[in-house]
Amino acid sequence: MRWVSALLGLAVLVVTVGSILRNLVVPRGLGSALVRVLWQSMRWLLRHASAPLHSYEVRDRFLAWLAPIVLIAMLWSWLFGLLVAFGLLMQAVSGMSWPDAFREAGSSLFTLGFASGTRRQLNPLDFIAAASGPLVIALQIAYLPTLYGAYNRREREVTLLVSRAAHPAWGPELLARQALVGTVDELKGLYEDWERLAADIGETHSNYPVLLSFRSPRPYRSWIVALIAVMDAAAMHISLAPTAAPVPAARLMLRSGFTALREIARVVRVPFDSDPDPDGPLQLTFADYAEAVAHVAKAGFAVERSAAESWPDFRGWRVNYESIGHALARNVDAVPALWTGGRDFPSEPITPSRPTDRKPGRPGNRPV
């Protein structure tokens, strides 16, 4: 039995340390079974707790607790794994009873020292356990600034987008509002900013998947909805106005965007086609696209091609990111916005807020 305890203890120790390294130390987007299990189970509990309330704003307030719960659960899971591992190893080395072995392991792991004895054969394990507990806690504390730094960079751009496209974000609305206020030329800078942001999101959210559970400060904002909106706007821009559009900036933003989504999809195990057929199926219909084209044209956007003429180019871009974007929006319970697919809770797409003119000639009353 002592050999069995030793083997089990070593196995638990290797698995636990491997999980710590995968999540906190190795920046390779390795993924984590622990994060997936905690994320899915906690998300299920929060969604079902908020289900009777029906309001999306209430659901969002419940789901805002997902990230801190997952972070705390990760820490306790690792500490519990270390406690089990060292308890098994101490029982194997000393032959003491199970309660005494786990008491000794807990005393050393949490540096309490109350169970210290004269068993010299346990001294190496006591020292290793005593170093492991504070080390794991220190790594978790050092992990938080990295997470919140990435979160702040992401949310800054999502918040800045509100002034251009309101919320929840929608690609055609972004084009329409820039046409209304005569700032279509400024979209080149927006595409360049979101090209860099998409690369940042792809790197940080694939290396630290727990960031996917961090929600925006406001219920109608979401990083995945905003990213899909900017990509849709870029695809529509170069499809509808290929001469006037900032084609290089828009194309680079689109490629950066769907590359980032694919990096995240690999880690969270969302299936996707790495080389989709440009004429492959889309959930978005031509009728929806034609209605959006009419919306941007009515706002004054200079359209060089009709909806029918631009549709093949637009769908050739969107097929690269639609399925992944919809899957991630569903997995993170993002605000149900236009053109972002369904959700795991009853919902209807929410249109962007559109204030109306009260006094057309007065500054500040024109919708932006």
Structure notes:
- The C terminus is likely disordered.
- The chain contains 13 helices and no strands.
- It folds into 2 domains: 140 residues, no CATH class; 182 residues, no CATH class.
- By secondary structure, the chain is an all-alpha fold.
- The chain is 65% helix and 0% strand.
- It is elongated and about 85 Å long.
SSE arrangement:
Blueprint: H1 2-25, H2 33-50, H3 56-63, H4 66-94, H5 98-109, H6 123-165, H7 171-181, H8 187-207, H9 223-240, H10 247-268, H11 286-298, H12 307-318, H13 322-331
**Distance separating the two termini:** 72 Å
Q: Report the portion of residues in β strands.
A: under 5%
Shape: elongated
Number of helices: 13
Average pLDDT for all residues = 86
Which segments are poorly predicted (pLDDT under 50) over 5 or more consecutive residues? 356-368
Gist?
This protein is mostly helical and 368 residues long. The protein has helices at residues 2-25, 33-50, 56-63, 66-94, 98-109, 123-165, 171-181, 187-207, 223-240, 247-268, 286-298, 307-318, 322-331.
Describe the structure using short key phrases:
368 residues, mainly alpha, 2 domains, 13 helices
